[in-house]
Amino acid sequence: MNTASNEENLADALQIIQNNAPSGIASGQDPFWVASSMAVFSGLLAFFCLPHIGQDTIDQEDKRFRAYLERHGYDTSAMGLHHSTLSTASVGPPTETIENQKQLDA
């Protein structure tokens, strides 16, 4: 979906509403009320129709996805079970930096 064309369509619709207003004041108010009601409607739609996203949603989705893959014949025995092999020695500043700092402190 092209966002630019959607914005142009909305602008065209609001321009038509503004041009067909019965008075000068209404030509400023009518597009505001239309756009505001669309914003409120979108907010209500999102609030009532989108699913709840909680702290454990990603874990539930992972379980459902794994079950889906298993139902369709994929081997998931090694999926997500490997822990990071990153050693603590590789985390942090290089040893040269620490040695240089010790020499500067002395």
Summarize model confidence as the mean pLDDT: 79
Alpha carbon gap, first and last residue: 64 Å
Radius of gyration: 29 Å
Q: Percent of residues in helical segments?
A: 55-70%
| Alpha-beta classification | mainly alpha
How many helix segments? 4
| N-to-C series of helices and strands | HHHH
Number of strands: 0
Characterize the main sheet.
Answer: none
What fraction of the residues are assigned to beta strands by DSSP?
under 5%
Low-confidence stretches: none
Q: What is the 3D shape?
A: flat
Describe the structure.
The protein is mostly helical. It has a domain at 3-49. Helices cover 65% and strands 0% of the residues. The chain has helices spanning 3-19, 24-49, 57-71, 95-105. The longest helix has 26 residues, at 24-49. The chain starts with a helix and ends with a helix.
Give the helices and strands, then pairings:
Layout (H helix, E strand, L loop, with lengths): L2 H17 L4 H26 L7 H15 L23 H11 L1
Helix pairs in contact: 1-2
Summarize the structure.
Helices cover 65% and strands 0% of the residues.
What descriptive keywords fit this protein?
106 residues, mainly alpha, flat
